[in-house]
Amino acid sequence: MSETEYMIRGRGYLRNMRDLGNVVLKADTGGSGTPVLLKNVARIELGPDERRGIAEMNGAGEVVGGIALKRDGADALTTIGNIKSKLEELKPGLPDGVSIEPVYDRSQLIDSAIHTLKHTLVEESLIVAAVCVLLKASMTAAGGSTRCSCT
After folding, report:
1. Distance between CA 149 and CA 135 in Å, rounded?
2. Which long-range contacts (CB under 8 A, 24 or more apart) does 4-10 make?
3. Are 26 and 36 contacting, i.e. CB atoms less than 8 angstroms apart?
4. Can you give the C-alpha Rg of the chain in angstroms?
5. In angstroms, what CA-CA distances link 45 with 8, 16, 39, 52?
6. Which one-letter DSSP state was computed for residue 25?
7. Which end of the chain offers a freer environment for a tag, N or C, measured as fewer CB atoms within 10 Å?
8. Three-state SS for 108?
């Protein structure tokens, strides 16, 4: 068996499993006209209602999820800060046992990237300054003029 499973939700003429089994999948039009019914090719079972859209967090059971979106062109850190302050405003009004817990907070990633960029810019500026000083010192040591005489 292929273990392939199809879920069918029917409304209308299908009233029970027998009606579903009698659904014609294909009819032989060239010869005997014998129909191939769903019950001839499949095992039909009544199963539980499918639960869609559930999430589980850290193995502690089902939770409700939500996603906050920023508008196009908006500053990500400002948006995240506004969301955090709004969540703090909502906390006192939540029922007992209900909490709002951020799962993915990009502000730490953004702050880390900004810190790395600042650090790298300072390093590169110091390297450029050192190269300029060394270049000037080597030009002076070679007897060259450090002034530009353009006519």
Report:
1. 18
2. 7/47, 7/50
3. yes
4. 35
5. 11, 11, 11, 20
6. E
7. C
8. helix
